[in-house]
Amino acid sequence: xxxxxxxxxxxxxxxxxxxxxxxxxxxxxxxxxxxDVEAWLALRRRAIAGLDPAPRPWLHADYQAEMFDKPWWNxxxxxxxxxxxxxxTVVGSATLAARKETAVVHWLxxxxxxxxxxxxxxxxSHLEHAAWDAGWREVALETHSGWTAAVAFYQSxxxxxxxxxxxx
Length: 168
Description:
- The protein is α+β, with helices and mostly antiparallel strands and about 170 residues long.
- The chain has one domain: 3-Layer(aba) Sandwich (Aminopeptidase), CATH 3.40.630.
- Helices cover about 25% and strands about 30% of the residues.
- It has 4 helices and 6 strands, in the order E-E-H-H-E-E-E-H-E-H.
- Strands 1-6-5-4-3-2 form a 6-stranded mixed β-sheet.
- The longest helix has 15 residues, at about 120-135.
- The protein starts with 6 loop residues before the first strand and ends in a 12-residue tail after the last helix.
- The mean pLDDT is about 90.
């Protein structure tokens, strides 16, 4: 699939309560602030390494400005996936945002050495369940068209281009 716009907008309708899945050896918990910010930033560095185009690096101040300081941000909607045998090892994260009455996947990060083990699906199941509980029946996201693995992942779990281009 070829995209002209570098940003791909995808959406998924939630028709029933999403099932939260399990992945053997992985725990999911809500992020603890400010304690987990450095671990999240380290995960982000690992997760974006090698992406083309490369996102700019972030510091603690960037996290503060992009997350804490936003009116949509809610600590209860920011999850970390950790290894069962080492709870300090953060292997993934997902953040749900509320923007203009819409549930949005703000971040989904999985450590490259932990990919293809179901962690992305695990985190998305938590995010979609929380969206449902908050009353949303659709989840939106955007990603870069050049990040083909991310686009393919989202499509594999039911996200699709909006049918009506005006709904973007």
